Structures are given as structure tokens and as C-alpha cells.
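hey so u asked for the seq, here:
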Amino acid sequence: MTSESEPTIHRLNGPSDLFPLVATFSDLSDGTEFKSYKDSQWRFLLNGEEITGFAIYSEEEKERIDGCVLKVNLDDDTVGLGMVLVRPSKRGRGLARALIEKAMQLENEQEKRCVLAVCSPLGQPLYRKLGFRDAGMVTTLTCSVSDLMQIPRKHFDNEYFLAIDGKSCKNEQLSLLVNHDASATGINRKDRIKLLLHGYAEGSRSTVAFLSTVGPDLNRFSTAVARQDCADGPLIIGPMKGREECCIPLMHALVEKHFGDEGGREMNDICVMMMVTDHPDLVARLLEIKGMSKVSECPAMASDGGLIYQNGDGSYLAMMHPTLG
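ran it, C-alpha cells below
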């Protein structure tokens, strides 16, 4: 790409710049591998001060975006990149490379590491050319609500269990979730978790589950959050932190509480999705569930080759979001 043909890249800082463009981002993703992303999904993703966007506007239509990348400030030393999208008709022109290089420019000056929590097959060759190296594996799994509800709920001899609506979380429960998430990932995501629980778009809602196999010991809880971005959308389970043996009971509890007495074909047909991080034994166990299938297995990547959650304690079982980690 010559300097004459280099695109103009616009920086979009936080929700004040990004939120007015929700419909524009939805239009962009509609023609890509993220075509399932509609306004409600974008509202969750863009609604955070830790997000910066970089966009290339169309030369033909002033209000249309032809390419974008989002940057997430994860901590003082690390930024995440995600939603690297280019309109299919504009691919092959170096837009994705230009966007990523722009997003990485400041971080390289400050010697911050850049990470990509999930890398699609389409983007992997470019990321490797830019110096990113594999840093783990993320396996996306899916089944239906009815498949999951057919599994008998496993109970532990001395368990302490609670499942509640996200908006009903008390301060101490929110603190428990935030602290567990921070210990698992090494990242303080308090504001994002509050948003996840309290809602971010019309029709969005969440459910939280806590499970301990040794009574109400705050240090031994496994925790998980499930969210629906819209009423008929998939139920996405994550973040999940804790012991692998608690994963399926937590999933069962989340689905049971989230849908309550709704029942019927509509509820049973809803898709349940989870992105498992670097736990191959757990993936194997989940694939034993009748109806559970593997959607994808994609690497995480980092500019230094280090693990994405290198400051975590290894108990992070399932991701919140492929861009947010």
C-alpha cells in the first residue's frame, strides 16, 4: 500500500463516540463472520470507558464504515484487540493491517503487550505477519436448552448453592463476582461486570450462579454469569471461574433459573453457548453431553507470546466475550 492510498483512520473514544454508531457497526458486521451481531450485542460491547474504536469510513457513502478494530484497556500493561472487521467488498486492500497497526502504535511506544483473546481462521495469517504468537486455545461449544436440562443436576455432599437474577445481586455478591473474576484473569473488570448484571439494552438480562462444594466458604466458590443480549438470542455463559467439576452444575443452574417456568418449545430451542479457555479436559467432558457440539477451536494470540491471563490463577473456565476476554 502506498502512502497515497493509505486510508484515513478515525479514532473513536469511549461510549460518547461509539454509541451513536451502533447501527453503523451492525451494518458492517452483517456482511462478515459476525453477522449475528445486532444492535443489542454491539451495545454491550461498546458500552465501556475501556473501549477505543478505530474506523475507516466509506469513500462512497459518508456514514458507512468499511472497516474497524476495537481496543480494550485490560490493565496497565496489556491491551486487547478485537472485532477486526472489513466489509467483504473492501478486503484485500490492506485495511485490516492498517487498522491493527494504528491501534498498536501507541501501545508499542509505551511497551504495552497486545493480545487477541480469540483469533478467527480468517485473521490468523495477518496476525502472525504482525508478530503475534499463539497464546492459548479457546473452544466455542453450543447446545440447546433442552439438551442441557436433560442432564440430572449433580449435587455435592456439602454444597452451598445460589442462583439469582443479575439485577438482584447484592453488593457483597457483586464484590464476590468481581474479586473471583480478578483472581482468575488478573484483570479488574468491575464496571463491565456491573453492566453485565444490570442490563445494557432493551430485552437484555443476566443470571448469576454461585456454587461451593465445601459450604459457604467465600474462597472456594465457583461462579458464573449467563446473559441474553435480546429476548430470542442465545444464552451466553461466561465469565465462569472455579473448579472444572462445578461447570456443568453451574450451567444447569443458570439455565434453570434464567428461564424459570417459561418452558415450551420456544425456550427449549434457544441456543446455549460457552467459550472455554485452555481447559481441554473440561471440553472433552462437555462434549459428552448429548447435543453438545464444537463450533470452533481458535487460538488466542499475544504480541509477546505470553498467556492472555498470565496474571490469573488458572481458574478461568469460560470467557465473557471474544473481544473483552
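The longest strand covers residues 133-144. The chain has a mean pLDDT of 89.
lmk if thats what u needed
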